[in-house]
Structures are given as structure tokens and as C-alpha cells.
Amino acid sequence: MTKISVVLPTYNEAENIKLLLPALKKVLEDITSKNYEIIIVDDNSPDNTATVAKETARSIGIDNNLKVIVREGKRGLATAVIDGFKASSGDYLVVMDADLQHPPEKIKEIYLELEKGAEIVVASRFIKGGRDEGLSFARKIFSKGAALIGKLLVPQIRVLSDPMSGFFALRRTVIEGRLDLMNPKGFKILLEIMVKGKYSKDKVREVPIVFGKRAYGESKLGLKEILDYLLHILSLNEYRILKFMAVGVSGIFVNEGVLWLAHYKVALPVYLSGLLAIETSILSNFALNSLVTFRKERAKGTVLTRLAKYHVATAIGAFINYATLLLLTHLLRLNPLVANLIGILLGFLANYTLSEHYVWERVGRYE
Question: What is the pTM assigned to this prediction?
């Protein structure tokens, strides 16, 4: 039968590991008999998590199925998972937290999805049957907001309802030859895999999970982890949103320059000069975005198809800008300059989102 490797990144999880290892033994032996391994990657926990793990494994008879890696002077969940992958030998790789918030019995359902042909399987709190019982209100807000930002900037994770999940599995082929390309920051390794792995997006599956309450210990989420996440998202986005913004600024100069030339030098009427200026800036922005912002993307359709789509995206962005200005000034009596600034921001976000996910939409397989 196919061998399964379960990777557990740990830091101060000694009490939890005593409960988790027997539960993992039960579900894994039900699936594969003895054909599995559990890899604990511990960041030199002061509570001796690594030692407790070895003792627990010995006491329940799975010491031959356990690998423990202790990393000195190094911390980080995502890099721990990468090190676990490198030490693994399974055809199927499962990643989960060691704090008992991820129910081990779900591994069987995940395994069955892989057996049916899935390449990546994610345990989700946000599909039918899923639920989140383990996070505070503030953590839930952060999780939802982080997922929204991620989906806006990283198209590959839009197939997931719960891209922030730390409980997932994949075929080894997804990461073969790719681990050295991965440079995760912080704690969300799934994002890195979705962007840099080799898989078809129609072979990504989700299974529902009830995300439980932590049994022992404390959450590792803090301000540093939040900042690392934002930097990670920008990195995975390859800073396209910043490039898109710079192109937009250049379009302002193109627009103004063409308007000046057409009206003051060629003596065209303003209504014609304005239309010419707008269209020229749209063509300029499209060309620069194709050459700079989305240069690496294998986008669907022909250049002319994308150009037509870009006109649609630009029109929708302009409409949102204008509609926001009118709504905020007339309904909320907001200062027109402030209202227009908000409209420009929302219009920009709409324009960028449509460009990322509609104009330069990617082909189905990620290589």
C-alpha cells in the first residue's frame, strides 16, 4: 500500500504530543497497517517536546515509525514543514498541527481523496460540514481578512475556501524538484505549495473539518507572524500589485501628454482629444502590464482577447470609482475629495482584481 508521511512542526507541544501520537497510530494503522511514518520537526522546545515524543512512541510501539528532527537556533512552522518533507519517504505527505486542533481521524478521508486521484487535499473550516471552534473572535477576523487578501493577490489559492488551513495533504509529485524554490516566510506553507507546486487546479480537493480548541499550550500567532504573512503574500504575488500601481501612474502622464498634444498642438476639440488620451493611456497600460506586471504568466486567449477584456476591466474600475464618488457625496455628505480618493482606491482594486483573475487568467495546470 502507498506509504504516508505525516509531518508535525512543533514548539512546546510536549503535553499535546502525548495525546496526538496514539491517535495518529490508530488512524494510520487502520489505513496502511505499519506502512507509515510520523516526522516531528521540533524547534528545540524548552519543554522537551522531542524527548517526550520519543518516549511516547516507544511506549505505544511505534518508535520505528517515528523520526524526530531537532533544529537548533531556528524557528518557523513553514520552514519546519519543508525540512520534514526533505526527511520524508512517503508517496503521500500530510501536514498538520500538533496542538490537537486538527482531528487525526480526518486523515482517512484525506487519504481516500488522494487515492481517487486528487493531487492536493485541504481540510477546510468553510465548506459544508466544516466549523471553527478553536479561534477567538479576533483570530477569526484575522483569518478571514488574511484569506481575502491572499485570494486577491495570489490567484492560485482562489480554488480553496480555506487557504489559511494548516491541515492538508499532497502527492509527492507536487513538490518534487520544487523544495529548493520555496522560500516561505512565517507560518502558512500551503500558500507556497499552491504557488510553486506542480498540480492541476481541477485536482485540488477540500474536506470539511471541525477546527477544535487547543488542549495545551498557547497560539504562536503574534504581530511578527502577521507582518511575515503580508510580506509572504507580496512575495508570492511577485509584487505585481505594486508594478500594476506604477503602470497606472505612468498612464496618468501618458493621458495628460496625449491630451496636451492633441488639443494644444493638433487643435482637436476637447471631446476628441479626451477620448484619444484615454484610449492611448489604456493601450499604454495594457502594453506595460503585459511586458512587466504579468510578463511571466501563461495567460489564456490571444493578445487581442486580453486587450478587449482589459477595456472591460478598466471600464468597470472607472464605474466603481465614479459610483463611489456619487454615493459617498450624496448619501453620506462626505467631502468630494475624500470620496473621490476612496473611489480611486476601490476602482484600482477592482481594476487590478479583474486584470489578475480575468484579463491575464492563467491556464489550468501549474508547472
Answer: 0.81
